[in-house]
Here is the input.
Amino acid sequence: MGNTCRKPVCHDSSPSLFGSTNTQSNIKQTSDSPDQKTDSKTSSSNDDKSISKDVKSFSFNDLKEATRNFRQENLIGEGGFGFVYKGWIDENTGAPTKPGNGIVVAIKKLKPESFQGHKEWLAEVNYLGQLHHENLVKLIGYCSEGKNRLLVYEFMQKGSLENHLFRKGVQPISWMTRISIAIGVARGLAFLHSLDANVIYRDLKASNILLDSDFNANLSDFGLARDGPTGDNTHVSTRIIGTHGYAAPEYVATGHLTLRSDVYSFGVVLLELLTGRRVVEDDRQVYTEETLVDWAMPFLSDSRRILRIMDTKLGGQYSKKGAQAAAALVLKCLNTDPKHRPTMVNVLAALEALHSSNSFPKKPKSGTDNHNSVPRTPKSGTENHHPTKHSSHHHLHKSIANTTRKH
Here is the structure.
């Protein structure tokens, strides 16, 4: 993993359930919470008491068999959390099956030395065990046996958004699909923020957005999620942890976490969708502290210059009006004053209005490609990703209220 921060940092990246290791540096400071190291016997005995009954408990041996003893050939992702393997289980009983039988699942196995330890593992089980929405990845089950900590998810056929935006050799995703993905992400965040006990996702980035066979977006990896402020509280004070370039500046500076912190991260992701460029430089031989936001801001502030930063892989297949509207939304989400950022409900409404407008797609006139002169940017970088994913064929335009949270 590349270290893109000048200050020393600890890495706390978790893998896409169906992609490869993240390349962004993660910001992590000393925690004001108790030490994450927990006695395995004590934590294991307490896990089942707090985990939702809707989530199936798997034995370690069953998951070992489902992945063929965690064979290297079934490895589909790796990161700070641990390893992600492809496995096969019976759809009704959950029993391990032979490859090609039953359903395909993604099995995430925690490394004992992982920064994202038992506390984050349990947070992910509890959040995804209680929250159900078409734009959140489905947690099928877990394993808490001795020192073993595993999670079992639906398999996402198209892999992570990171794969499709930045991996060389992958078919570029269209402008309309990009906006649809943004809508799915916005809908997932709007759902989390609109709960009576709202939830701050805190780790939005391209590698945590998973795509099913229809390119519907699903938020994954809830290990860093936190309950939002309650009562008269305006923020949650917490350790500073996240990915460089995605984390809101006021959160990095103070540790004060709010719902608008997620809005900033969404603005960064939307900017990646527009430009097709990574949030940080990924060339290990070229050091830079400049982020995509730093580079793009002068262009975002001038609607006449927006087309200069649009992803050249789009081949001009988008409307100028649509690009300018999306860029204006990015600018609002990236406001340095969190109070002036829109809510995710308002972001979602703006994206749906853009999607329903006649802003798709518009072919450039012959010989008038607006991308011949593209300004220098942080390099995109490449990495080996494994495109994968199970589908959850939901339409992106269902109400965010079509969800449940169990207490």
Q: What stands out?
A: The first helix runs from residue 40 to 50. The chain has two domains: 26-154, 161-393.
